[in-house]
Amino acid sequence: MRITPGYLPDPQTDYEAKAVAFCKAWLLGQEFFTLQTSGSTGTPKPIVLSRRQMAASAHLTGQTFHLRPGDRALACLSVDYIAGVMMLVRGLELGLDLTVVEPVSNPLRSFDSQTDSFALAAFVPLQVHTLLDHPEHSLPLLNTMRTILVGGAAVDPLLASRLQILQAPVFSTYGMTETVSHVAIRRINGPEQTEVFRTLAGVEIGVDDRSCLHIRAAATDFARVQTNDVVDLVDASHFRLLGRADSMINTGGVKIQPERVETIIAELVAREMPPARFFIAGLPDERLGQQVVLFVEQATWPTSFIEIIKQTIPEKLGTYASPKKIITVPVFRETPTGKIDRKATVHEFLVQPI
Which InterPro entries match (predicted)? Predict the structure, then answer.
């Protein structure tokens, strides 16, 4: 389905009907919109955003990536959540030629690199992995794109490594429903790749006494949004994302940031093993308070690889950071947006061990 300035098509599916309904509400001047948070860091909750906030975010994206009226953009994220809705708003506010497809794992399967080219496309990591699994078809399409955004979940070392095959610029985005989509970006492929996020123009950041990021921008209506994301604040416009304060594991009095352990394991998996989903969590332990546990989906890693993990993590993060158990789970629980629901997966294991 294509939405162009001044034209809304007749929807052919329920999903298209939902996207068109939002566009009609926007074009009729609706001032407030209620969206659901994704639930990746807590219980999903409704948030009311103003038209002013959403328009400010759309124009900031346009300014950042030099989008012009008539540029073609691909919207393939769920319009039930902020990332998908904001692609619609960008199309309407910036006068883009917007192609809307349902949020499937391979959203490029019906396109042809000879006839289809996009100035902007946004994906979640799972979609990017799927696209890279089919390089003969996907790479020519991806490499015609002017800007590729990857958000909704962290870009791990495995995905970053796979993305080096792309010539088109790929950016990891940082944002949430409360900030009306992304407020910071970092390049993740090519010679300009970096681990440091750069805030977009006009976005003010700082940290609280936990080193957790707070944000103020036009998209937040200039209200301060306090996050639970622990960062290394490089300067007034740059930061490294370290992990979530509420995911910290206290084991034997030593605080372990799970995301740092996961980064090391992801680097090892990228070198040694087939791709597999995993995460680090803290489980109750009578002696330590909590023990560091590695949850792996489906894959059974050989003893030799487990030994590599147990040797590498203490060398880099100390003995307490090394997983005390490795638990294989058939299928991870997921949030409505396809992210791993860590709390639900751990709870399911504790209530009914697999």
Answer: AMP-bd_C_sf, AMP-dep_synth/lig_dom, ANL_N_sf
Give bridge partners of residue 296 from the DSSP assignment: 278, 328
d(CA 179, CA 83): 11
CATH topology of domain 2-245: Rossmann fold (3.40.50)
CA distance 37 to 45: 5
3 state SS of 259: helix
Give the number of other Cβ atoms within 10 Å of residue 112's Cβ: 11
Amino acid identity of 49?
Answer: L
Render pLDDT for 202-239 as a digit per residue (tens, 0 to 9). Answer: 999 999 999 999 999 999 999 999 999 999 999 999 99
* Structure tokens belonging to residue 171: 């950016």
Q: Per-domain residue ranges for the chain?
A: 2-245, 248-351
Calpha distance 174→258 (Å, rounded): 19
Q: pLDDT by residue (tens digit) across 297-343?
A: 988 899 999 999 999 999 999 999 999 999 999 999 988 777 889 99
Class of domain 248-351: alpha beta
What burial class does residue 274 get, using C-beta atoms within 10 Å of its C-beta: 0-12 exposed, 13-18 middle, 19+ buried? exposed
DSSP one-letter code for 13:
S
184 contact partners, CB below 8 Å, separation of at least 6: 173, 174, 175, 197, 198, 199, 200, 203, 205, 239
d(CA 251, CA 256): 7
Burial class (CB in 10 A: 0-12, 13-18, 19+), 19: buried
Cβ burial, residue 193 (10 Å; 0-12/13-18/19+):
middle
